[in-house]
Amino acid sequence: MKKQFYIYVLPFLLCMGCAKSFLEEKPDASIVNPKTLNDCRRLLDNDGQLGQGLNYWFPSLGQLASDEYYYNKATWESTVFVQERNAYIWEDDIYEGNPQIGEWNNSYYAIYVCNVVLDVLNNIEVTAANRDEYNDIKGTALFFRAMWNFALAETFCLPYDEKTAANEMGIPLRYSPNIDQLEKRATLEATYSSIVQDMEQSAKLLQNKTPSVFRNRPCTAAAEAMLARIYLVMGNYEKALQYSENSYTTYNVLLDYNKLTLDGDAIFDRNNAEILVMCTQQGYLSTAVGRFAPNSFVDSTLIALYHPKDLRLKAYFTFTQDGKANRKNLYTTGLNGTNCFNGAATDEVLLILAECKARAGDLDGTKILLDNLYKNRFAAENLPQLNFNNSNDAIQQVLDERGKELLFRGMRWSDVRRLNVEGRDISFKRILGEKEYILPPKSLKYAFLLPIQEIQFSGLIQNKR
Questions:
Q1: 48, 67, 199, 367: which is deepest, by most CB within 10 A?
Q2: Do domains 2-213+443-458 and 257-424 have the same CATH topology?
Q3: Where is the RagB/SusD domain positioned along the sequence (predicted)?
């Protein structure tokens, strides 16, 4: 017990009196000495600092840097946070020397909480009476540790490429809550191996196969959906196919937009039937719901992808008199209107499965999946007729659907990163006043700089520019 007290209490006392690296910063005193399964469950459900549990405030710098939205120069100049303004134009140092970066701090705080829980579980005897609850709590801790490490990798590391991952820098991997155990950056290969290992173990331990009424706790189908997303990012389409098929077979409910009231902003309940697990990104006004950011508009190229009869046009957007689109609240109704959903949902699983089938040459399987999506996104009399010329055509049509269906979930940033690894040469472009900004396909800026405090206090190697 003395050892546990040192691990959980002393770090808290130390971080009270001085500014430290956030790899060393610890949570408040309300969680310093958990002992029971109930203590562990309470930590995972609502840790006390992230506000509503480990589901919220995931890194969103990639969302800020993506091309799903735009605004004019005057609106850009009035943005509140320097990283919000600078991520928009892909500056070298988006923080302008600010040492406290929420995307990094929140992530390692959440990972710390997961490690506290896993450490406490090592000292709890497993019995026939508590085994199911024990396994579910452990599976939940592993699920969120994997989620937060994955979010860090997608934000602060270059895109995964199996040919170079063993030599690229990943993130510091922390498995212990001990303040003395400082970690250097692992390789990118080791980073993703750790993420996959945690999530695969989670999928085996979680007790609920499908989501419960409240979506804050993960289930097996959610863990398998996240494995599909992770393997998709890694370019391992065989594994992404396996896990998306597992998840989709277990739970595949889609919302029928024909049965929704599409007027107004609050269309989607945050516990709606498509959500496998609720998670959100850190909020910024740039990517907020239109009523909070009326001068932030959805990219016109993206809007042009929608069929005029697509019900998503009315479900997802409001339009100004001159035809510009603002986004509505997408899956986060009742939460902060600046937060974007980034949890797992059945529509994403369907599209991962469809893309993997297209890449494997199963065009009939791809068509069945997209037809199922369309019948829930169009009125019966307006259903588009799907035809694929070949596998590449099918892949592109699925990618277009990902853009239309998964907008403002952080997926565009991840998709461009992974697609450029396979040579698609996609660039981002912004125009502010008379000046044009371009993020080329091979830019080192696809990995955001680490906070300067981590370089100074933890001795981490900074990303190149």
A1: 199
A2: yes
A3: 348-419
Residue 214 has a pLDDT of 83
**269, β-bridge pairs:** 333
DSSP label at 449?
Answer: P
Q: Give the chain's mean pLDDT.
A: 91
From the list 322, 311, 287, the residue with the least C-alpha distance to 412 is 287
- Global confidence as pTM: 0.93
Distance of alpha carbon 74 from alpha carbon 53, whole angstroms: 36
Structure tokens belonging to residue 236: 């391992």
The predicted-structure confidence for 362-393, as pLDDT tens digits, reads as follows: 999 999 999 999 999 999 999 999 999 999 99
Residue of 136, 78, 76, 161 lying closest to 437 (CA atoms): 76
> What are the beta bridge partners of residue 275?
345
Helix %, strand %, coil % for the chain, to 5?
A: 45, 10, 45
Q: How many helices (H) and strands (E) does the chain have?
A: 17, 10
**Measuring CA to CA, how many Å separate 333 from each of 83, 234, 261, 352?**
26, 31, 14, 25
Q: How far apart are CA 323 and CA 317, in angstroms?
A: 11
Which two three-digit tokens encode residue 3? 């050892």
Which residue ranges make up each domain of the chain? 2-213+443-458, 257-424
Quickly tell me which residue has 């970690």 as its tokens.
Answer: 183
The CATH code for residues 257-424 is 1.25.40.900
- Crossing angle of helices 188-205 and 131-156, in 10° steps, is 150
Distance CA 422, CA 425 (A): 9
Q: How far is the C-alpha of 54 from the C-alpha of 278, rounded, in Å?
A: 10
Query: How does pLDDT run across 261-305, given as a tens digit for each residue?
Result: 999 877 898 889 999 999 999 989 888 888 888 999 999 999 999
| Sequence letter at residue 7 | I
The CATH code for residues 2-213+443-458 is 1.25.40.390
* Cα atoms in the Cβ-side hemisphere of radius 13 Å centred on 370: 27
C-alpha to C-alpha distances, 448 to 380, 385, 443, nearest whole angstrom: 45, 41, 11
Three-class secondary structure of residue 465 per DSSP: coil
